[in-house]
Amino acid sequence: MAVGVEEVVKELRSTYTSGKTKTHEWRASQLKAIIRIVTHHEDEIVEALRSDLKKPELESFVHEICAVLSACKLALKELHRWMKPQKVKTSMTTFPASGEIVPEPLGVVLVISTWNYPFLLSLEPVIAAIAAGNAVVLKPSEVALATSSLLSKLLGEYMDTTAVKVIEGAVPETTALLEQKWDKIFYTGSGKVGRIILAAAAKHLTPVILELGGKCPVVVDANINLKVAARRIISGKWGCNNGQTCVSPDYVITTKENASKLVNKITESFGLINAKGKPLAAYLFTNDKKLKAEFIGSVSAGGITINDVALHFAEAGLPFGGVGESGMGAYHGKFSFDAFSHKKAVLRRGFGGDVAARYPPYAPWKVQFLKALLKGNILGVLRALLGW
Q: Where is the Aldehyde dehydrogenase domain (predicted)?
């Protein structure tokens, strides 16, 4: 076992059990600490990303730094509302009673990040875990070594290290982490490793979020602005991280008006896409409203963008995640908070309104009463109680 892994988990478990991470004050303080990390160390972050990926400063700023700040500021702004119990209506069956759904932290969670957006895809799940009130271990990708080292250094300096830890390393460290019991595991990466993580999690019945991949199709209809479509497709493929993006387009299906390799009807492409396995994203360029509806209804994918590519990833109001071989679970915005929370059902009752019909012996009038109650038949309830 990698040195210290078991001790780290024990420390975080102790911190979580103390209730420290559950308070709004603690969550907000840690989110503010992440904002300070980003704003005070922007140049170091850009340099680490350049060292790891030769990433241009503009892409580092827009796709990683701004995205982390946006996620953090949204969580801070909405935290009180997200934490607030949600009232629900109760039925005649439990009358008199009140019901609510209470978001509860899961406990101690593990985030295993990837290399292509090593800053964003490390910190966005950590932000979500903290906002939901969990203690968290981050395992950055060893492939992006400079960013991994910087994350370890900065989180160690700014964060509450009794509840937020970074463990660097490669396969041995990841293997040791997966031997521990977690309350959730969040993994971004390949399907091959995703299967290993899912198998390890199953030993402890640990829920997982797997952000994987798949080949993302683009369907291009006739009679569109082909110049704009081509520009957006090419930008989505090569304008972000040199094409190393999980939602970038991988192949195009179009008609004879646009290419020599063709399908007779655009709708035929839907079956071709579904036959390849469910992708993380699918794209359609068309002006046809009916075709848009058919595409959305027929093609199974993690997400869909119409007349552009990849932009659904940037919308905090939409869940981002895969389906089938492209992953399971989703996050972004409120969905991130929900991903690291348990929705606890709470029913409150007083000591009044106790009905004898629920207790033995089961006399005929009780059956009559309960049937009327379940049907919402108030007159039938009164008749049963009065013996009519």
A: 5-269
